[in-house]
Predict the 3D structure of the following.
Amino acid sequence: MNERVVEVAVRKVHGAGGASAMDALAVEEPLEMRLEHLDGGRRVQRAVAVTMRTPGDDFDLVAGFLFAEGIVRDADAIAGIRHTGDTAGDGEFRSSVVVTLADGADVDFSPLARMGFVSSSCGVCGKTSIDQIRARLPTRRRDSGGMLDAAVVHALPATLRAAQAVFERTGGLHAAALFDRAGTLLLFREDVGRHNAVDKIVGASLRANALPLDDALLFLSGRASFELVQKAAMASIPIVAAVGAPSSLAVELARETNVTLLGFVRDGRFNVYTAPERVREAAS
């Protein structure tokens, strides 16, 4: 597995002077996702997408991507996951993850028609893609979990920052973390792509047969965009909180799917954009 951090030589300038130094950078590399399955009695492979990601937790990333896109519906659809990699003629190392589908698994191949290259900054793009994703979201339902205290929300940024080991070295990674409603950190992932970090959370939960995540809270180190709320809704996560701002489409989708969406969670404050009934404020 390739390194997640690399050291590069830089010239650091402060004021009118400068000096040579080394700087740590978060690694960004392509990962090809492939599906292997039976077709007409023979085993075939088909490409899903190529994503730019930070190496690490690749199996979780691919499993989460397939689930969030509605291609697989549960862990039983996946018979195995493996890495493959080779060196191209130009000496570049290329890595792939191949997901072997279980024979007879309930798999929807239709989303593959719109996929290809997925950048580290954008998951899905375009009205057609968004409409297709909306059609695959689970039925809007009531939340059976307990209330979320505002004090727990205020403590999330410090807990997340303490877990961000690679971010501390590079300042260049996004983070996603899964908490329970008491504020206990359950799962944490980092990646150069915001949507990749969330896919790694969802994929790890899928592979552990922990879905749906009805009582969990997803906390994001950056802003809350449409595709991140969509991924949370697919995993039945009822609360999404973000250090940054939500987009208008993220708020619209959160309202449609009955997700409590919190933004600007920092410095002892936050905004509640949808479903405020899950949040318990301190008495005045």
Observations:
- The radius of gyration is 20 Å.
- The mean pLDDT is 84.
- Residues 150-163 form the longest helix (14 residues).
- Helices lie at 58-68, 127-136, 150-163, 165-170, 194-207, 226-234, 248-256.
